[in-house]
Amino acid sequence: MYCFRPCYATGRPVVDFMTNAVAYGGVAFLAGGYSASLSLDNTLDLLLHTPPYILYMAAGSISSTLPDISGDRDEGKHTTAVVLGARNAHLLACVLLLGAIWLFYLQKDFFGMWIAVSALPLYLLFLVYPTTLLMELVYKVGGAIAMVAISMVYPLFFIVGITTFIFTLLYFRMVHHVLYPSLRSDSE
């Protein structure tokens, strides 16, 4: 659905990042909540606590597409980052991240709030110093913070995360000949 026609969500503004946000911030959060309780009794509570996770993932999704703007533009994709431009797309990501922090606070979800607040300095720094290094660090460090924090609560998640990382690394290396996560060609 995300990468293939007829939906091709990856090339549509707003739909591109919301697809990722709902899948990874919404569906994954709900699946984790259900598996932790093994009950459907807390469905309403889980649904009410899902929005800040969706906003956090939306911010990260937008940020992860900033390095792809020129390639996406060359391919004719109309991603959120292509349509808005790097600065405006990053501003949108900052607003979404601040919205996540605010909702975490209102819900007294201090664990989620800590994760989002930990990512905020890089988001703000990139607004002031829009360098390539900071552009990469914004989403990579934000994602790493979330992975480490979740692994502290659910150690099994660390094993799943590392396994996924290794398979992703191998996939990009063997199929696309790039060094993941840097995405530089392995011939460079």
In words, what does this structure look like?
By secondary structure, this protein is an all-alpha fold. Helices cover 74% and strands 2% of the residues. The chain contains nine helices and two strands, in the order αααααααααββ. The protein has helices at 15-37, 43-49, 51-65, 69-74, 80-84, 86-106, 110-128, 132-153, 155-176; strands at residues 178-179, 184-185. The protein has a two-stranded antiparallel ribbon with strand order 1-2. Helix 3 (51-65) packs antiparallel against helix 8 and helix 7 runs antiparallel to helix 8 (132-153). The mean pLDDT is 85.
Structural class: mainly alpha
Give the SSE order as H and E letters. HHHHHHHHHEE
Whole-angstrom Rg: 17 Å
**Helix count from the secondary structure assignment:** 9
Distance between the termini: 33 Å
> How helical, in percent, are the residues?
over 70%
Quick recap:
The chain has helices at residues 15-37, 43-49, 51-65, 69-74, 80-84, 86-106, 110-128, 132-153, 155-176, and strands at 178-179, 184-185. The longest helix has 23 residues, at 15-37.
Q: Which helices and strands appear, and what pairs or packs with what?
A:
Elements: H1 15-37, H2 43-49, H3 51-65, H4 69-74, H5 80-84, H6 86-106, H7 110-128, H8 132-153, H9 155-176, E1 178-179, E2 184-185
Antiparallel strand pairs: 1-2
Helix pairs in contact: 1-3, 3-6, 3-8, 6-7, 7-8, 8-9
